[in-house]
Amino acid sequence: MFRLTPFLTHELYIRLIVFLYLKPMNKIKWGIIGCGDVCEVKSGPAFSKIEHSELVTVMRRNAERAEDYAYRHQVPVWYSDADDLINDPEVNAVYVATPPNSHLEYVLKVAQAGKPIYVEKPMGRTYAECQQMIEACEKAGVPLFVAYYRRQLPYFLKVKELIESGIIGTITVVNLTLLKSPKIADADPNLNWRVNPEISGGGHFHDLASHQLDLLAYYFGDFVDIVGIASNALRQNAAEDTVTASFKFESGLIGSGSWTFTSLASHQKDQVQIIGDKGTITFCCFNDTTPIVLETDSKRQEFSIPYPQHVQQPLIQTIVDELRGIGNCPSTGHTGAKANWVMDKVLGKI
Asked: From CA 313, how far away is CA 153, in angstroms rounded?
């Protein structure tokens, strides 16, 4: 019987249990639930481009589209029923790539089947849903990973390297700004599920800010104090379109964020600025053509680091490594749930 000691965090404890009771796999045979747009380039092809990994089946409720995806991506088997994929004996790991409203349902089913799970972000519509997923996976003894793939992209790892180098001295504040213009489809939530809170949990804030908040936690540790205000200024749909927040990290570092999805297209802005007493680091979260800028008293440097063709591939590589017993993935159910906790706090849901 293992006991949790001060030297063994809860998550490390779970990893140890999984390592002892879930035998490392030689080859990861993936099934995808929900082979939609995100699977075309960002994630789907990566599963078969990684050594010891293969995409063996896909599922989509629209049988014609499932068959089309399988044909175009040379996937041998397709289904229109998720249960068939989950129970396929050839599948030993499952990627849940559906909208957030079905993440909980599918994660619970895959966990019950005893198979590792990789789920899209945001992990759930609410922090409470994320907690249910974590509990189910821990009870089943299966690992749970979340698609916060910026944790492994070279562009963002360079930012982490600069932070940890101490080149900008003591970091005193981090400011985040995201201004985007509304989409035509936003006026009809049937055309854009991302602005239908019943499906997504919120609006574009949930979809985009979740990436940013997870990344900041990766750089600076857990958020411990958050105050937020949100409004639906344009009232195009039921979701918030303007959000501001102030926050503190466990280290004592403070920061702020401003998300506006109502701006003119010509006024769009995507910027994170990390300010230290010896310089600043400025970068962009959603556009790799914008270089990382390092400014100190003595010089200004720019670092242009393009994203890989399949942006999720570096993170998926770490999942395959962990399942094979030779590494660890930095984006787990526990880390992924924290982004939902922050968003719920900002929006006053908890």
From this structure: 9
Instruction: State the fold for domain 10-148+312-332.
Output: Rossmann fold (3.40.50)
Residue-wise pLDDT for 328-339, tens only, equals 999 999 999 999
- Provide the edge-to-edge strand list for the sheet that holds 223-231: 223-231, 242-249, 254-260, 171-179, 269-276, 279-283, 292-296, 300-303
Domain-by-domain residue ranges, the chain? 10-148+312-332, 154-306
Tens of pLDDT, residues 212-252? 999 999 999 999 999 999 999 999 999 999 999 999 999 99
pLDDT at 184 over 90: no
Give me the pLDDT at residue 183, please: 87
Cα angle 159, 243, 188; round to 5: 110
Angstrom distances, CA of residue 298 to CA of 39, 106, 159, 179, 301 = 44, 53, 19, 31, 10
Mean pLDDT rounded to a whole number for the chain: 93
pTM for the whole structure: 0.92
Q: Strand, helix or coil at 299?
A: coil
Q: 83-111 burial, b if ≥16 CB within 10 A, otherwise e? A: eebbebeebbbbbbbbbbbebbebbbbbb
Q: Which residues contact 137 (CB under 8 A, 6 or more apart)?
A: 107, 111, 117, 143, 144, 333
CATH class of 154-306: alpha beta
Which stretches within 73-153 are classed as H helix? 82-86, 103-112, 127-140
Instruction: Tell me whether the CATH fold assigned to 10-148+312-332 matches the one assigned to 154-306.
Output: no
Q: What would the DSSP string read from start to end of 16-41?
A: HHHHHHSPPPSSEEEEEE--SGGGTT
Which DSSP state fits 186? G
Residue 303, SS3?
strand
